[in-house]
Design goal:
- The complex is a heterodimer of chains A (about 120) and B (about 120).
- Chain A has strands at about 5, 10-15, 20-25, 30-40, 40-50, 55, 65-70, 75-80, 85-95, 105, 110-115.
- Chain A has about 120 residues and is mostly beta strands.
- In chain A, strands 2, 4, 5, 6, 9, 10 and 11 form a 7-stranded mixed sheet that branches. In chain A, strands 1-3-8-7 form a 4-stranded antiparallel sheet, with no helix packed on it.
- Chain B starts with a strand and ends with a strand.
- Classes of the chains: A mainly beta (about 120), B mainly beta (about 120).
- The interface of A and B includes residues 6, 43, 92, 100 and 107 of A.
Chain lengths: ~120, ~120
């Protein structure tokens, strides 16, 4: 089976712009979770989608949003980018979802740099 | 409340010597526990997983971890370090599912350096 794929792998934007990141889960997986990873804050949970519905949400401002399509592919959007949004954004998929002892399979990440 | 503490932010070992990466957790539920490895600029790769079966869990690349409920620990070990083991390691606890909450908790990571 193909693993989790994320596009693009690298992205450079300027402050105030918006960005959309894409994640394709492993075939058959219905849960997609997004994480932000920075040297200072480590790995932080953004949100989880399951069957096109947001199931869990972390403590991020409303500028961060996401959605999931009927084929389980997911996108996350960050509007009005700030310098502090520079990070590695990781997507993970699982069959049942996080918190159920289910294994999360991670993609390679999208490295976002905000100038 | 659920939490994960990785006791060492950085561990250095010589190639061929044992590896010990320490992790303590707290959980109000019967937890599932994971160890992931992350190589530079890559995503996280699952090393092993504990879900209340055998307390000694064997993973990939010769790693294993032992769940000790009395000590609330889930330390990762490997008998002999290889240069390719140099990476960041994350201990993760899943609390069994509370709808509407963030149910995965990540440790802050341990950077493993392997000295030739």
């Amino acid at each position: 089976k193909a693993g989790v794929t994320q596009t693009p792998r690298y992205l450079i934007k300027t402050r105030g712009q918006q960005v959309t990141l894409s994640c394709s889960p492993i075939s058959g997986h219905r849960s997609v979770s997004w994480y932000q990873q920075t040297p200072g804050q480590g790995l932080q949970f953004l949100f989880e989608y399951f069957s096109e519905t947001q199931r869990n949400k972390g403590n991020f401002p409303g500028r961060f949003s996401g959605r999931q399509f009927s084929n389980s592919r997911s996108e996350m959007n960050v509007s009005t980018l700030e310098l502090g949004d520079s990070a590695l954004y990781l997507c993970a998929s699982s069959l049942l979802g996080q918190g159920l002892g289910d294994t999360q399979y991670f993609g390679p990440g999208t490295r976002l740099t905000v100038l | 409340a659920q939490s994960v503490t990785q006791l060492d932010s950085h561990v250095s070992v010589s190639e061929g010597t044992p590896v010990l990466l320490r992790c303590n957790y707290s959980s109000s539920y019967s937890p599932s526990l994971f160890w992931y490895v992350q190589h530079p600029n890559k995503g996280l790769q699952l090393l092993l997983k504990y879900t209340s079966a055998a307390t000694l869990v064997k993973g990939i690349n010769g790693f294993e971890a032992e769940f000790k409920k009395s000590e609330t620990s889930f330390h990762l070990t490997k008998p002999s370090a290889h240069m390719s083991d140099a990476a960041e390691y994350f201990c993760v606890v899943s609390d069994g599912g509370r709808p509407g909450a963030n149910n995965l908790f990540f440790g802050t990571g341990t950077r493993l350096t392997v000295i030739p």
